[in-house]
Amino acid sequence: MSDPKERDLATKQRLMEIAKVWYDQMDGGDVPSITLPTRTKYNIEYDDASEVWTYGSKESTRNAGTAKSAIHMLKMAYVIAFIKMQLAENRSSTLREMYYISEGWKQAKFHAQNESNYLVEDLEIITNLQREYFHMRPEEDGASIFGPLRVRENTRRGMKEIHCQDDVGEAGYNIPNNVENVELVDHNATCVIALETGGMFSRLQENGFDEEYNTILLHLKGQPTRATRRMLKRMNEELKIPVVVFTDGDPWSYRIYASVAYGSIKAAHMSEFLATPSAQFIGVKPSDIRDYNLPADKLTEQDVNALKAELSDPRFGSDFWKKEINLQLEMGLKSEQQAFASHGLDFVTKEYLPAMLSEIGVLKR
Amino acid sequence: MSDPKERDLATKQRLMEIAKVWYDQMDGGDVPSITLPTRTKYNIEYDDASEVWTYGSKESTRNAGTAKSAIHMLKMAYVIAFIKMQLAENRSSTLREMYYISEGWKQAKFHAQNESNYLVEDLEIITNLQREYFHMRPEEDGASIFGPLRVRENTRRGMKEIHCQDDVGEAGYNIPNNVENVELVDHNATCVIALETGGMFSRLQENGFDEEYNTILLHLKGQPTRATRRMLKRMNEELKIPVVVFTDGDPWSYRIYASVAYGSIKAAHMSEFLATPSAQFIGVKPSDIRDYNLPADKLTEQDVNALKAELSDPRFGSDFWKKEINLQLEMGLKSEQQAFASHGLDFVTKEYLPAMLSEIGVLKR
Amino acid sequence: MVLADELAKKQRSISVAEFFEKNKHMLGFDSPTRGIITTIKEAIDNSLDACEEAEVLPDILVSVRKLGGDVFRVVVEDNGPGIIPEKMPAVFAKLLYGSRFHQVRQTRGQQGIGISAAVLYAQLTTGKPTLVISRTGAKTKAHRMTLVIKTETNEPEVLSHEEIDWVLPHGTRIELEFKSTMQAKKKLLEYLKYTSVVNPHARFRVEIDDESFTFDRVSNDVPPCPVAIKPHPYGIELGVLKRMTAASDLPLKEFLIETFSKVGEKTAQEICSVAKLDAKVRVNTIQLEQLNPLLDAMQTVKIPAPTASQCLSPITEDLIVKGMEKEFQLDFIKARTRPGNVFGGNSFIVEAAIGYGGKLPSEGNALILRFANRVPLLYQQGACAITSAIANVNWKNYGVSQQGLPMGPILILVHVAATNVPFTSESKDAVASVPEVEREITLALQELGRDLKLFLNRRDKNKLQDDRARAICAVIPLIAQKVGEIVELPPPDTSLIEGRIMRRVVLKKGSADGRIRIRIDNYTTKDQQVSLYDISGDSAADATVPPDFVTEMEGEYTKVWKRTLPAGESFEVSYTGTGGGIVDMQGIAENLKVVVDLDV
Amino acid sequence: MVLADELAKKQRSISVAEFFEKNKHMLGFDSPTRGIITTIKEAIDNSLDACEEAEVLPDILVSVRKLGGDVFRVVVEDNGPGIIPEKMPAVFAKLLYGSRFHQVRQTRGQQGIGISAAVLYAQLTTGKPTLVISRTGAKTKAHRMTLVIKTETNEPEVLSHEEIDWVLPHGTRIELEFKSTMQAKKKLLEYLKYTSVVNPHARFRVEIDDESFTFDRVSNDVPPCPVAIKPHPYGIELGVLKRMTAASDLPLKEFLIETFSKVGEKTAQEICSVAKLDAKVRVNTIQLEQLNPLLDAMQTVKIPAPTASQCLSPITEDLIVKGMEKEFQLDFIKARTRPGNVFGGNSFIVEAAIGYGGKLPSEGNALILRFANRVPLLYQQGACAITSAIANVNWKNYGVSQQGLPMGPILILVHVAATNVPFTSESKDAVASVPEVEREITLALQELGRDLKLFLNRRDKNKLQDDRARAICAVIPLIAQKVGEIVELPPPDTSLIEGRIMRRVVLKKGSADGRIRIRIDNYTTKDQQVSLYDISGDSAADATVPPDFVTEMEGEYTKVWKRTLPAGESFEVSYTGTGGGIVDMQGIAENLKVVVDLDV
Q1: 0.90 cut: is pTM over it?
Q2: ipTM for the predicted complex
Q3: DSSP letter at D165?
Q4: CATH architecture assignment, domain C504-599
Q5: Residue C486's closest chain A neighbor by CA?
Q6: Backbone phi and psi for residue A61, each to the nearest 5 degrees, phi listed first
């Protein structure tokens, strides 16, 4: 469905199907209702087919028999009508704009922004479509890319073809908020390195790591946005480029990796669009802190609690993570990725990364 | 000093001058010392010549007569030596990397990252040079630009010429962390609109506001980075493009405007490089909340305190700000810029912005 | 050694009046403000106790008048049985003198200290004697005395004594002058209000300088006067048993039966055999070594608790509710009188009540009213076992939020009635921590908590039903509208849903295109007599069904339609107008009625 | 009315023993655990008071032994003056009997209740009489009695009485048996430790079952026994004045001079004229109306405070410090005895002490020791005026952090000595809030706070000087090194700075290229005798200046050079080696000495 027209039509049909179910329920004298999977940590399962974590079989049904649920469904009906209008007029808007537009919806008006966010997520689950298909724009755009990749972006000002090394400044190519409008043309990369910090992104660029090893550098900018995760997924799936993730060595950074590789609990229904199960974590590992004697800070209480929570998270159930997390709890230390600078500014590009990438088989030297 | 070689040489000389003063002090049997302006809200003054707020005449002298000050000066000496090496070898690094490199500096080792940050700021003040001249890279790169502007960026991969409307994707051109490497080639813009939120950036793009009015859109991404502020300053100064700022209507957003227009207290020494005194604030103003009946939230206690602090801030001393802030305190309300969507998705581009830009004389219709 | 002789010369007995003169804060006279409240409290305690004994409905006058400077005159007058003149001096001017200390029964005053302490305090601060008038019956004259306490000996001194005519047939009046301030006025009125809550049979008239207040009675039944009972074996300590046995020459079994509550033939025999003592041994011959096993036996053999109903006078659930209704406006009141129980041989009964809603403040801690033997406790709430028992109940179980104390529009009343209330100090501000008492308070509050929860649930359930009705009748039609718009079909008819789900009578009013449409659907299974009231600026002159009745007042038209609506049928009317106003129907039970104004 | 007669029959006097038997918690006997501490405390109070009166150094034995079950025997034995046999029964077995109640002077016991209450408690829980042995001198025999209290009358009953031989020439021993638990052991030892701190002239030997402890004396001076004084006019209440005037037939002026402290000719005359009373009027003829202006006059005319030194016995600053040193390890101790002061006519003196550092825990609230008349207060710290006075001082002024109470390694001791300590209750746990007393505590603590601040500042200043030396001698050479590197010149010589700034003797040791270089610069203005000690693995066989003395021990060489170094000159030596070890110099005053190891 890369043709926008076709995509919009299919989306409209899906939404109308939902409305039609309610219509028929009411017409038959039944209170309209809707069924959704339960959205908690205890209802996510590993799906062998798609290799991602997605919602399990626990479901909850909501019917319009109470004022609260009825109002909720009324809001959903208004949102569907609003999306239908956007599709028809080829408009788009942010969730926040829709929240303000609901000012005119009387009883269906949203009273808090996360109410509208949650409702759109429900619609994603019901339709099994991403919100981008609804012309709902995220607030944040995606990460920066720098490396041997050529893309063709379908912009409002026409088609633009951009090479992410030759046609961009040092800050790289900025992933737009709707990745579906980007076509991946070609590349000659050995892998994508997704980096947590801008400092490391620049370090690799300055040291010419992208050229020397033909790697695509991607600056995650903290917890990656949907657009960033979708882009990683597509580079991996469509272009078959291996993805590795290089972050700080603390529990919050492991969650960044987890959201890239396994998907997030909040968006488990989107995992098959957003998760890259083959993405590999290359550091900073707790064992790196030990083996490379990295400058480190003490774990805070929050860090320790987060690590313990990860030990009970099914997504961190592998032997690798169990061993590393337990080691970290034992050491009581965490390090940032730039801590490698204590061995000199070139250490990370000359020693650490080549060794790691060879070890996991991405570089064959 | 747009030639990098020349720039590096001048920088090296400045740094060596500092060291030479200390050298002479010690050689003469004096304890080495250094004098800096006091860096508080109470020591900033409006400079009529440069039209920016900068540090006043209050100064404090630090001499190596106590262990703490002596260690501080020792660290400064190490940093100067480190920068000298970077200039010589044409390397660069982030503040964080320098922090880790200091692991090997024995007594001169930094014990916290903000210690190294503060020290580099001191050096900026003493040398009257930006840290970019020291080859110290910021962690964060700058904002996105979309509009009728052509730039030439001197990258590590050679010179790149980029038109910020034609040669980029929808996410726009990403300002690199060192703006000194960017040459502003040409433009045909009526003004630069600096926007707080990504949602509004996309809204203006979708509605074709940049094309219709020939405006450059700039997404500030929250509190603007040094690179962003420097870029705004240069567009305004070198290309004579008027700059307007469009944010949410709350005290924190006014501070975003203030840092663009007046400079920040923390970096008052850099105001003449970073501040754009002619930048105009076009909204959301408290009077807009009233006049356009915008959906609004109640001010929190923090908001009220922040507004009151602004009333006593010399940078907000104008009649305009006094009136607006007092009005806001009276109403007890704040609104986001996307709240204009309650009047429809086109209201902001068809009504509000044209009216505002005409009112301040940027658009002549 | 000569020194010991010298020291011995200085040793002498100290009078209890001297002791308390020096330590007046121990009796609640630590400040002038507090002194006035303590004085009035002690006088009222005595009056109420006396009226109870005489089975008279108490009518008590309290008067506080500033005499100039910081000197006040306090008068308390009752219609009790009076005091015979021979006893008046000792009752009012001797500490530790009274009728109730040795009795095992519930009384307000117990130690015979309170009112004499007030007299002591008065003479200490102003030097003035206390004036007492008492009359024991219509046939005798009243006696008027002025009294002081001789501190060195704790003996009364009568300064004057005369017989006088008096307006009351019987009763007692006491007038004291002492230094104080009227900062205590609020606390004083609070004290009287709370006293009135737990003494609903008493009337109080209060005069403070030129203001007057009345706390009236809500019950005309004098509560039965508690009867003194014999001590219970479980509450005896060894030293006391030793004293009792030494003073009696009865055989052991008879001694046990005669001396103690609830000990009969069988129990006495069992005690003797457990203690391995001959039932016939004369008790004054029992040695200390044998008293120990005897006491153990008395306290291990199973003996019923003392009959609380005789020696105690609980307020009763009914009168607590009346008392609370009188002084507070509440949505819910429930009181609970627990069965009698015993701690250390002292009978006690716990009573508690919970009030909810009404005019109670909806935020902050619950209002707590503590009482001991019908006397309100005003000070040291934090140090009181009642407070900690309240805090230890898990109120969240009953739908009440809690931060230490329960929070919200709640009033909690706890009354501990006992033959010997365990106060933390002689100033009687707080009940000491006694596990048995705390347990009873907890049980009473838990029972009341369950009742409160039922009330709150019922209130919530009513809310829920209303909520459901609103969903069906007001929101679903809007969903139908919007869904119709999406699927591009006319909106589905939702009346079928309403009928199925609701089984109620539904009135809907709405406007569209300048026409007002009102519809009543009887979804119940019975015929309904409905009167439809529609009050608005519209005259409804063109109504499709003309109203049965129309009145106009300042431009507002009240239109009434009366119909008998058979089960499953509906009534509809429309007219031209602008809508607004009020719509309602009469004749339908509240729980079957749904009114929806679609324009709101 | 017949009822009043009936009621009258029941009215009778209540013995104070009965009263306290029923209310034993008011005296600190509310639980078995607490009972044992209260008992020992009361016995020790009496012993210490008696020894003070007899000017004997107290030697007190405390023994607690479990007899089986929950029964304990407590023994307290002293070497005091003893009690004559005639008085023994009343002293130990009659409440409100004693020598100190009517005296205006500082004593531990005051009311004559404490020890008798313990006897009452013992006989109540075990039925056992109390055994007392007392001997008043070497010439007489000891008397041994077993005693109980007749509760109904509060009179002692002597069960046995014999004369015996006794090992002590004079003293008293009391043995009580009662029910308790030994959970109180920690608290008991704490009580004895604190008692020992404020009674540094006493020795306590303690036996608890088979363990024994000793708290020894640090002073051999018996504190002077406080002398009773006359009451002060400021502390008199009207009722008391009335009593005094009624009992005297002196002329007013003589009455004032005779009866009160600090009233002389002139003052008495002034009182008379302010009160507008004839100085010659006989006081027993003065009417109540005139007493009021008299009292006002007595309390408005300026009269000096009573001479505290007579009637009070402060511990004194010196002995407080000794007592604290004995029981705590501290870096700083300072004590302060305030001048005497007066509240409500009662003389009092506040003493306080602050200890800092040492083994005190560096975190958490300050340790607070409260004392009243040399008796530690162990319970109800939160309710005590001492605690609130401490909390109300702004400790931050003195460099001490504070959250309510001061925090950190601080010990605060406060002792209130008074002719009548205002306790909040007869259990004597907490001092009641009296503004005059609180003010004195505040002043004492503020004075001590200033001393503490000086101490902390001096400590900080020493740190500062060391800090400066470190900057000059260790860091500046490194700066010179680095700056030289930057400007591409040889590093500047920093010895000139050292000399100018330091005016000290500087020893530097450093290594470079396998050679160890040691240099001493005498920057002072005087010649210095220096012994340089260099202890390391290097033998310094090739030293440029051979050491005056070398020893070797397990591979460590101690090399010593002795030199007289004139002002402004230096000494230098170098040798081949690996460095490390210790370097130091002797013969230089600590504040002139700087030792820098450049390799560390």
Answers
A1: no
A2: 0.57
A3: -
A4: Sandwich (2.60)
A5: A81
A6: -110, 140
